[in-house]
Structure formats: structure tokens, C-alpha cells
Amino acid sequence: MKPLRLVPRDTAVPFVKHRLLAFAFSAALVLGSIAAVLGIGLNFGIDFKGGTLIEVRTSEPANIGQMRSDLNGLDLGEISLQEFGSERDVLIRIQRQEGEEAEQIKAIEVVRNTLPADVEFRRTEFVGPTVGQELIEAGILAVGLALLSILIYIWFRFEWQFGVGAIVALSHDIISTLGLFAIIQHEFNLATVAAVLTIAGYSINDTVVVYDRVRENLRRYKTMPLAELFNISVNDTLSRTTMTSLTTLLALFAIYFFGGAVLADFALAMIWGIVVGTYSSIFIAVPLLLYTGLRRGDDDTGDESMLPEYERTVKNGS
Questions:
Q1: Is residue 84 located within the same domain as residue 159?
Q2: Are residues 67 and 163 both part of a single domain?
């Protein structure tokens, strides 16, 4: 039985030919995302804004759906519930109430009176805005260090030109994800930060696969125009790219629609990141190499006459 190929073997799409259009679209997307983050702002969750954490234990396996329905009707703002440890243990997060400590205590009493009498309140903690600010700074630091580490890795594995292209594409993916959350005003919390870091890892893996083929072809075809060589490299890896992205998206859509409210924002960030990361690997990371003074390898291991017919017909797109 032949293996499944979503993309025909003789595909010869001139991706690089449309690089200026892709650059213009990406620039508009990034600038619009920055404007949304600065103008509208992110809807920070309790992890960043501060609030109250209540740990409870129920006598029977907790009915999270019913508890969430009861507490959401209390007009206390954002409330999230999460099982942890066992199916009887539930962590309740309530957003910080307007006012001083008395208002926070009042919110806890309202929750206590709403839940069944057999619910045991095991721990109550208040997360102040100072802790939230520290988490914001830690999240920014984590993303920044991830990008720096990726740049160093690509630099050592390939050349600095590849590192520049990879970081520009990654920054494009992360900024556009932040812009999406600013526009739709979904909660931005620690789970979303984890999604952003996961997007960076997925996107760079996709980019490295294409870059590997580019490097191989640079050493193999010494006289072929770079734009044509890049087109061939992207088309060679297109089947793998689309297959990986599609299978990942199938799992993420299942999580988004059936994983519950706790995982919905994480899955949404990942879905957007997979789509825009695949796009940037093809239309941003590779075409940018045309403007970085990329050099060919020193060892000649082949020539253009070894190309299949369909590859020889790919135009350089310049």
C-alpha cells in the first residue's frame, strides 16, 4: 500500500515568487497585533491580575460543571475551577474584587455559602497584584530566553543568516498570537504563556526541517539561482509540513471543542500558532535568506542535471 501524500510528489509551487506580498501581509499582521496589544491590551487572568485561591474537597467526586454554574451566577467576575490531586479536590480561582481586604473576605464568604455544606474548605490564599506583576515579568523573561536560545541553536547548527530568518519568523508568530488574544479578549494566563512557548518550539522545528533541505541543496546545486533553489527546498518538504500540521490541528480541535473551559484558551492559542507558524516557515523564514548574503557550501556533491523534471521547471520567482 502506498503511503498517504497530501501534496503530490511533482508539486512545484513558486512560493518565493510571492515573497513581497507575503512580507506586506506579515508586516500588516505584526503592526496590527502590536497596535491591538498596546491599544486594547491583553485580558490578563487571575494569575496576572491577582485574586483569591480557594482549595476545597468534596465528599463525593466533584461535579465541576455544576459548581462552575453555581459560582458564575454570583457576580464576582472571572471564576475558574480546576481539579487537582484527586477527583474530590478542586481549586477555585476568583478574580480580585474592587476594594480592600474586606471585599476579598466578603467574596470568600459568598462562595462558602453557595457551595454545599459538606464541602471542606482546606486552603484560602490571596494573590496580590505584586505577585501578578512578577508573573508577567517572568513570562516575558521566559519567552525572551526561549528566543535567544533558539537563535544560538540555529546559529551553531547552520549559519547566522538562518538564525536571523528563524527569529524573525518566530517573532512574527508570537506577536500575532498576542494580537489575536488582545482582539478577541480571551483570558491570557499562565496556560497561554505555555502555549506561546510551545508554538515557538513547534514553529522552529518546522523551520529547521526546511532549512536542512535548503542547506543540502546549497551544497548540491552550485549554479542554480537561490530563489529557484529555495522553491525546490520548500516543495520537497511540503508534504511533511502539511501532514504534521494537519494531524496536530486535529488533536487541538478535539481539545478545543471537548476539553472544557480550562483548556480552551490553550488550545485556541495553539491552533492559531500552528497555522501561522506553518505559514511563516514557508513564506517568511526561507525567502528572507535572499536578503542575508547567504553563501553556498564549499563541497560540490551534485549538479542541476540531477534534478527531476518537475524541479527543473520551477521558476525562480524573482
A1: no
A2: no
Type of residue numbered 162: F
As a whole number of angstroms, the distance between CA 7 and CA 124 comes to: 55
Nearest to 101 by CA among 38, 134, 143, 52: 52
pLDDT of residue 39: 94
pLDDT at 178: 93
pLDDT, tens digit, for every residue of 220-244? 888 888 888 899 888 888 888 888 8
Is 204 within 8 Å of 166 (Cβ atoms)?
A: yes
Report d(CA 204, CA 102) in Å as an integer.
Answer: 48
- Tens digits of per-residue pLDDT, 123-142? 887 776 666 677 778 878 88
The CATH number given to whatever domain includes residue 112 is 3.30.70.3400
Number of independent structural domains in the chain: 2
| Domain span at 191 | 15-42+132-312
User: Cβ contacts of residue 43 below 8 Å, gap of 6+?
Assistant: 181, 182, 185, 186, 187, 188
State whether 305 and 188 are in the same domain: yes
Confidence of residue 14 (pLDDT cuts 50, 70, 90): confident
Residues 6+ apart with CB under 8 A from 191: 262, 263, 265, 266
Lowest mean pLDDT among 23-27, 176-180, 307-311: 307-311
If you compute the radius of gyration of the chain from its CA atoms, what whole number of angstroms results? 25
Q: Is 130 exposed, middle or buried (0-12, 13-18, 19+ CB in 10 A)?
A: exposed
Mean pLDDT of 257-271: 84
Count Cβ atoms below 10 Å from residue 103 Cβ, excluding itself. Answer: 11
Are 208 and 276 part of one and the same domain? yes
User: How many secondary structure helices (H) and strands (E) does the chain include?
Assistant: 10, 6
The reported pTM is 0.75
Q: Which of 100, 127, 154 is the last residue of a domain?
A: 127
